[in-house]
Amino acid sequence: AQSVTQPDIHITVSEGASLELRCNYSYGATPYLFWYVQSPGQGLQLLLKYFSGDTLVQGIKGFEAEFKRSQSSFNLRKPSVHWSDAAEYFCAVYLAGNQFYFGTGTSLTVIP
Amino acid sequence: DVKVTQSSRYLVKRTGEKVFLECVQDMDHENMFWYRQDPGLGLRLIYFSYDVKMKEKGDIPEGYSVSREKKERFSLILESASTNQTSMYLCASSLLQGHGYTFGSGTRLTVV
Q1: For B51, which DSSP code?
Q2: B contact set with A (CB within 8 A)
Q3: pLDDT, tens digit (0-9, with 9 covering 90-100), for A19-64
């Protein structure tokens, strides 16, 4: 079955440390790939997206993500985490002619 | 910026009531979506619409219906609310299929 997997349910990092959130998908073709962030009590905000071309994409709030076709992965990274980055992060994929599929999310806690 | 407005942030309804969740977007987007979000399950698609008067079932349409009489408005209807419909409901819109969504802030519905 086609799916989007975020293997880490919860991650805790220290403020100033680097961050990597994992996302894997299982589709035959390369889908469009997205990362969203959801602050408590809020809707989802688009961080970045990948359609084609350069496999390293830059997003808002200092985030970036790298598409690796060989690993079917689209991991989200940030070199130095801020306390305001504490939120839930969702990976999503879109396959042409189909619909969006979201991962189950990774909750990020930032400790001082 | 596109704005997607959900009329209520919090709702408490009784079992068996008919519930309307309203969503309005202000950027002439063709595509609109309703998701529910539950801990550990991520976002699940209830219904979507690619045009006025058009609706398609998503992954979990049972117990729900929708209405799209005008392009900017997409309503989710719970014909007879049940306690297992207690959830966060998120509306989203997009200009083109496969492009990133813009989400509303969500409606947290509690059915008692």
Answers
A1: S
A2: 4, 9, 33, 35, 40-43, 45, 48, 58, 90, 92, 97-98, 100-106, 108
A3: 999 999 987 777 899 999 999 888 899 999 999 889 999 999 999 9
